[in-house]
Amino acid sequence: MFHLWLFVRILAIGLVLVASASARSEANSHAALTIKEVMESIIVPASDTLWAADDPQTEEEWQVLEDAAIRTIAARYLMDLGGTGPDDNRWVKDPNWQVFSNALDKAARDSLEAARDKNIDRLLDAGYELYPPCEGCHLIFNPGVVNQ
After folding, report:
1. Which class for 119: exposed (0-12), middle (13-18), buried (19 or more C-beta within 10 A)?
2. Residue 47 class from Cβ within 10 Å (0-12 exposed, 13-18 middle, 19+ buried)?
3. 8 Å CB contact between 72 and 104
4. Is the CATH code 3.40.50.300 the one for domain 32-146?
5. pLDDT value at residue 110
6. How far apart, in whole angstroms, are the C-alpha atoms of residue 124 and residue 108?
7. At residue 22, does pLDDT exceed 70?
8. Is 114:123 a contact under the CB 8 Å cutoff?
9. How are the residues of the chain apportioned to helix, strand and coil, as percentages rounded to the nearest 5?
10. Are 122 and 100 in contact (CB under 8 A)?
11. pLDDT by residue (tens digit) across 49-77?
12. What is the pTM of this model?
């Protein structure tokens, strides 16, 4: 009976270890995209939309701005997971990256709140908040993009 109990316990521990290793492996292999791809396909168009906000009048115009803020928030989380680019996983661990990422998130959330409240002044202020973390991050992590 003792051997059966020991066998079951070892089997259970083994299953937990395998599941844990599998979960870590999934977390580390999640990325099918580079950070650059996320930036170019999601953040650049979304931030351009927010920065181009002029004087939205209709529900549809406000919805476009709200959607852009949501995409920016979501893309921030995607980037913070790392990516398949050669430096992506090193970058996201860098404390400077995390400061820029948090500032991007705050500005995007402020944009979202302003768009939901249909407050153009707050939306423009949030757009001004969005610019420094983008440019600062580019200066450190992708200096060539600043000159483009």
Report:
1. middle
2. buried
3. yes
4. no
5. 97
6. 11
7. no
8. yes
9. 80, 0, 20
10. no
11. 999 999 999 999 999 999 999 999 999 99
12. 0.76
